[in-house]
UniProtKB/TrEMBL annotation:
Source species: Mucilaginibacter boryungensis
Annotated coiled-coil segments of the chain: none
Name the UniProt record assigns to this protein: GNAT family N-acetyltransferase
Pfam families, A to Z: Acetyltransf_1
Domain of life from the UniProt record: Bacteria
SUPFAM superfamilies: Acyl-CoA N-acyltransferases (Nat)
Length: 205
């Protein structure tokens, strides 16, 4: 019963947070105003010089998503996190960014190797997935996840987990992408998803 109550409360918060999101129709209209199409956006590997833009984007998307939360991460915190991340050689981790025709970063995804006893069947982790609200529902998120999946496959990694927030309105997106919900032993859904075979992502697109 406790798990049911928590899962229901999380579903309600997903609905509340989704009220601040633009629709696919509105986002396509905005693209058309600028004369863009989704295929005009480029996905490339992130480089160290992207850190200021990555940090600012990280803050902006978080604020858009959790607009009702009073205390939000600062730009200084995100700058420190990304600088610290790039100190590590990109062997066990990687990051891809989405760039619009004006050369601005509008989304990113970070992947890394995964080896924990809680889910021993998975060897890759989609660590972060962020996309500005006005660019959602245009296929860019799908392209990002596909890029991450193919990078893992190139590394010989065939499975992946993602640990998100069960209050995030994008939870359903991961299910569309073939992810299966991960539940705790007492039946709670905390925003985690698993892909046992990453090849399914290419089959979905």
């Amino acid at each position: 019963m406790k798990a049911i109550v928590k899962n229901t409360a999380a579903a309600f918060m997903r609905l509340i947070f989704s009220l601040n999101r633009s629709s696919k129709r509105e986002n396509m209209r905005l693209l058309n105003v600028h004369g863009y199409m989704p295929d005009d956006f480029v996905i490339r590997a992130a480089v160290e010089s992207d850190i200021p833009a990555l940090a600012a984007l990280h803050v902006q998307v978080w604020n858009e998503t959790y607009w009702m939360v009073r205390y939000k991460p600062t730009l200084e915190t995100r700058l420190w996190q990304w600088r610290d991340q790039f100190k590590e050689a990109q062997i066990d981790w990687f990051c891809y960014v989405v760039v619009n025709p004006e050369k601005e970063l509008v989304g990113f995804a970070k992947g890394q190797k995964y080896a924990h006893n809680d889910f021993p069947d998975y060897t890759g982790e989609l660590n972060k997935l962020y996309l500005l609200s006005q660019y959602q529902c245009l296929g860019l998120g799908r392209r990002l996840v596909r890029q991450v999946a193919n990078r893992f496959l190139d590394m010989g990694i065939t499975s992946m987990v993602f640990f998100g927030d069960n209050k995030n309105p994008s939870c359903h997106f991961h299910e569309i992408m073939g992810g299966k919900r991960l539940y705790t032993k007492n039946g709670e859904f905390n925003g985690g998803y698993g892909w046992n075979d990453l090849n399914i992502i290419n089959e979905l697109l």
